[in-house]
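Appendix C reproduces, verbatim, an entry submitted by the partner laboratory led by Prof. M.T., so that reviewers can inspect both the input and the predicted structure.
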Amino acid sequence: MSARLETQDLKVHFGIGRTFLGKPKKVLKALDGVSLALESGKIVALVGESGCGKSTLGRTLVRLERPTAGTIQMDHEDVTNLSGKALRAYRSRVQMIFQDPYGSLDPRMSVESMLDEVVKLHYKANRAERLTRCTAALRQVGLDETALPRFSHQFSGGQRQRIGIARALVLQPDFI
């Protein structure tokens, strides 16, 4: 089976501080030459110490961070520089579960609003179809429709993490 998601020599560098002329004083190399190939149906774990770039890699694969250099390919198509509708279409296929369930859920939105917002952004579906999709995603993570009207502060940390997982699953992505 060939790889569905690949990176070649992926680099993400961040400037730290600025000189008088606006140039970075230092450069932090969060990712420096990462190449990998992921296949469908496989589970891959990325482990490492705090600050080694795991989250930066995830954020870059879903294009929340722009790579400094290198390429990202999905099904042999370069997605490194996508923007607009093409980027939105790509993001519907590749989702990320954020590690902090307290910081990644909007406390002013109900669970239904959070999940529905994701579906509305990516699909043209009526309210009933969106609700069906949201309820199915919650069931996949062991919650039911009684969670829909509730807010994140009404859940335990583990339940919040499951809501974050449901938010990734609601689009039925190719990769999480």
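The chain has a mean pLDDT of 92. Additional entries are available on request from the coordinating office.
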